[in-house]
Structures are given as structure tokens and as C-alpha cells.
Amino acid sequence: MLDLFINSHGLIPQALMAQLAAQGRQCHVMTLAECGVPQTDTPSVDVAAYFAAQTEAGTHYQNIYLDLTSCFDELQEFASDAMAASARIERRLAEVLKVLKYGSQHFARAEGGRIWVLCYDHSVSYSVNSPSNPITNNAVIAAVQSVAKEVARFAIQVNVFLIHPPRESLAEAQWRAAKHTLKVYGMKFKPQALAAVVELVGMYAGLQHLSTNGAVIPVGSGIGSVNI
Amino acid sequence: MNYSRADIFNFLVNTIFLDRLELADDGYSAADFSEETQILADEGLGLDSVDVLDLLVGIEKKFQFKPIEINSNFIDEVCASIGSLIDMVQSRMQMAA
User: Chain A residue closest to B50 (CA)?
Assistant: First the structure.
């Protein structure tokens, strides 16, 4: 059993890969230029060429995880340079669309598979200093809903996890300050342990019969932006 | 294995179009197809890009081709008609031989 992690440097993909390794599953990793961390040891690659090479080599992934929870923050980018931020978002979304397109083609040749896109719920950034990517999130959700309908006939399922940042992603003081600020609204979110988040994501991915496709799956204790 | 032009045509019509793409459910029969049948045009079969992916994956498997690079130029040129599709299959079979 083989899975692919696209952008594997964040807390969640790292923990998820460790969980899968403990279960005896193998993982490949690849990094995108705009959505990932190009300066690390995993060089960014061309998405189309990557999937073509893997398909030709006979590699069949069961799951593709595309992590968009780390490495960029739209609000900070806009605060710094709005024009540059717009251009980056466009390039970033083009990369995401390529993953959906070529990932779907890979699965179409391999009798199906699942694509999971991991995003942080941007509504949480109103209260704590977590990455806030409302444009990317909404564009990704729209793209996933659209492509999921089209590729369902190939036994391909595409879903988004909209995740409240786990407790370990921020300093304890930030969570405390947010809780004090929110007071009676403190249940808007309650940070969950990284292990709990990863357990839930892994549980979905491990389901033999998955009954969601084109869905936004909220992860976190409280009210996700998709439920407002 | 050698496939004649007629073999490829029959495979495309019966296995791909009528069965895999379920055009039989839309009232098509084998008699409705010829090499001139347009695949993408609305006045022909009116297939969309996902149908084309399905079609090409079926061809790859049947004829054991390496993954075909699918882009808009390829789709417009090769998937214009059943005849042009057969040309592509024969050309790839010759290259593989």
C-alpha cells in the first residue's frame, strides 16, 4: 500500500506519515514550488512530469494527500504586497488544479483512489495567529466539489479536510489569550491535540467504503467555517 | 498482437463507446458509428474531456500503451473523429513494434 504526500513539511502530514509508517504503509513525498517549502531537502517538481513518471513506472498510489496547512499565509502576503500576493495565489491555485488533474489521471489508470486536501480553517485566525487562507480555501473547495463529480465514475474520491489548527501548532499562551477574549464564545473552537486530528484524518483515509465525495469535512472541536 | 483497422474500430465502438461510455444507454447502436463519426463535436458524439480521459485510458489498457500525455492539442487533433483515433492507435503500435 502506497500513499503520496504533496508538501509534507507541516505538523499534520509529518504526524500522519509517522502513523502510516507504524501501520506498515509506504509513503512517497513531493513538494510544490508555490504551496510547499522549496528550500528544503525535497526539491519542488513538475506535477505532470511526476505523475507521468510514476504511472509509467507502474506506481499505484491509494491516497494522495495535498497539504495546504503550512508554508503560506495569504493575509500576511496581502499585508506585505497585495499585487505580489494576488500573483502568488494564482500560481498556487494553478498548482493545486494540476494536482487534481494529474492525480485524477493517475487514479483513472489505476482503477481509482482518493485525494485528500488538507486546509486550515481560516475562521480560527480571527482569534489566534494561525495561517489564514480564505481565498485559497474557497477556491480549493470549489475545485474539489467540481472535479469530484466528474471523476467519480473512475472510483476516484476527492475531499477537503478543513481543520482547526491543532494545539501543538501555536504557543499555549495564544490559545489562553484567545479563550479569554472569546469568553462565553470560547466554544467556537477548542484546540485539539495533533494526535487526535491525525487519528481522525487517518480514520477517514482508512475506511474501506468511503461515503463522502466532493465534501468538506470539518475537523476540530467547535464551529467550523463550513458550519456557519 | 496485430490489430487491423477494423479490429480497432470494433473495439472502440463496442467496448469503449457503447459499453464503457454507456452510449448504448443513450440509444446508440454499432450501426450509428463510422470512421467519420465526430467524437467531440456537438453534432457528433459530443464527448467531454472526462469522457476522453475514459476513452484514452481504455485504449492504453487494451493496447498496452505507455501513458498518453493528454492535453488540449492532443484532444483536438487526435480525438476529432474515430478515424483520427484509429490513426493514433496504429501509429503507436508501429512505434512500439
Answer: A150
- What is the CATH number for A167? 3.40.50.720
- CATH number of B5-96, picked from 1.10.1200.10, 3.10.450.50, 3.40.525.10, 3.40.50.150: 1.10.1200.10
Residue A104: what residue type? S
State residue A128's pLDDT score: 86
Say yes or no to pLDDT of A153 above 70: yes
Residue of chain B whose alpha carbon sits nearest to that of A154: B54
* Phi/psi of residue B40, nearest 5 degrees: -95, -35
Average pLDDT, chain A: 89
B54 CB near a chain A CB, below 8 Å? Answer: yes
Please state the ipTM of this predicted complex.
0.82
Residue A174: which domain range?
A: 2-227
Task: Look up cell 504533496; give the residue.
Answer: A6
Contact B66 A154 (CB under 8 A): no
Q: Do B50 and A150 touch (CB under 8 A)?
A: yes
In the block, cell 480555501 appears at A137
CA–CA distances in Å: residue A94 to residues A26, A41, A47, A135, A151: 28, 23, 11, 13, 19
The angle that helices B49-63 and A82-108 make with each other, rounded to 10 degrees, is 40
Size of chain B in residues: 97
Of the candidates A131, A121, A92, the one whose C-alpha atom is nearest the C-alpha of residue A197 is A121
Q: What is the dihedral of CA A10, A2, A112, A201, to 10 degrees?
A: -40
Q: Are strands A26-30 and A156-163 parallel, antiparallel or unpaired?
A: unpaired
Cell 483515509 locates to A205
Q: Which residues contact B57 (CB under 8 A, 6 or more apart)?
A: A108, A109, A154
CA-to-CA distance for B2 and A63, rounded, in angstroms? 37
pLDDT of residue A227: 67
Q: Per-domain residue ranges for chain B?
A: 5-96
